[in-house]
Each structure stands twice: as C-alpha cells, then as structure tokens.
Hints:
Blueprint: H1 4-16, H2 27-65
Amino acid sequence: MRTAEQETLIKQAIEQGPITEEYQANPQQIVHALNRLRATEITSFLQYKQHAYMAVSCGHRASARR
C-alpha cells in the first residue's frame, strides 16, 4: 500500500514529465537524430524490397524464355 508521501511524489513525477532537470541532452537534437535513423531504416528496407522484387521478376523472365 502506498503512503500519502509516496502518492505526492508520484504525482510530482508525473507532472514533471519524462524530461527531468538532470537530463543533459537537447531533446530536439535527440528527436532529430532518431527521425534520421528511422528514415534511413525505412529507406534501407524499401531498397531491399525493390531488389527482392527485381530478382523475382528477373527469375520469371529467365524461366519464360526456356
């Protein structure tokens, strides 16, 4: 069971939000870096899928010629 003091501390932590005063990094720079990383990951995935589709279509062309 929680005490009144614990409840107060929990409410204060929630009001303070996820970024505390002790956090040293610039949140905007972190968000920017994560977005760039996500974009790179998506681009790599799409390139992989394109190459896979091209390989399959080339395989179908080769078997159709036989």
